[in-house]
Amino acid sequence: MRVALLVTFLFMTLPIWAAEPNCPATIAVEESLKQSHEGWTEGRSDLPLRLSGITIFEGDPKELASLVGEQRKTSKNMMVSTWRFTPGAQYWISCTYSGTRMVLSRPIPSNYRALVVTYDMNVTIDGSPEIQKTEWRTTP
Asked: What local confidence, expressed as pLDDT, does residue 32 receive?
């Protein structure tokens, strides 16, 4: 009976801990003009809005306490930033996208102790290096 309850508990909580809080690579946004402009016709592009940046916050992003990761170049073309998370503190990740002011944010689950982001310095999206890879760590 205890084993069945434990298995049920683990199965029910697995999705909470299994999914890494990665930013979606692209988003779709419905935009419209607040006012029309005489002689102009409103239109929309089908270009994807690509992930252009990641910001880590200590606490809710509304408090604007963004953190700077430790940066190091791994080669001429690549750079790695690492954020380390102190146990007991609440951290959030915010994702910015090209061509929009829309930002997605969510709390980082407390089991993560670090985030390592690899950037391609030769490719830019909205002026920032392209994010090649994110790696979530449960140990510092």
From this structure: 85
Q: How far apart are CA 66 and CA 105, in angstroms?
A: 12
Establish if 127 belongs to a structural domain: yes
Q: For the whole model, what pTM was predicted? A: 0.79
- Using alpha carbons only, give the angle 94, 90, 70 rounded to the nearest 5 degrees: 65
Domain that holds residue 136: 51-140
Structure tokens at 117: 């982001």
3-state secondary structure 52-121: EEEEEEECCHHHCCEECCEEEECCCCEEEEEEECCCCCCEEEEEEECCCCCEEEEECCCCCCEEEEEEEE
pLDDT band at 110 (very low <50, low <70, confident <90, very high): very high
